[in-house]
Amino acid sequence: MATDEKTRTELEAAVYRRLVEHLRERTDVQNIDMMNLAGFCRNCLSNWMKDAADAKGVPMTKDQSREIVYGMPYDEWRAKYQKEASAQQKAAFEKAQASQKH
Length: 102
What we know:
The chain is mainly alpha-helical. The protein has helices spanning 5-25, 31-38, 42-56, 62-70, 74-81, 87-100. It has a domain at 28-87: Orthogonal Bundle (SMc04008-like fold), CATH 1.10.3340.10. The protein contains six helices and no strands. The longest helix is centred in the first third of the chain and has 21 residues, at 5-25. The relative contact order is 0.12. The mean pLDDT is 94.
């Protein structure tokens, strides 16, 4: 499928917005589970947003990029939805991090 650059960018933006909305609705899915299964989480998305803003010279703080992804201040989201990671989740995270370093 051939599309022009503007259309491709609009489609990618729509997909991103849908992904972020999906993650806002799925507050039951913890970031550590996303990291363990997919190698990225909401924080990664917010970091990528900030990186993109920095690359374009758009002023954006880490807190602002997190609020874009979480739909609320990060500390508020954590207080409402983040659960303490289990020993099993932490072990899986450490194993995944160690394997990425090699």
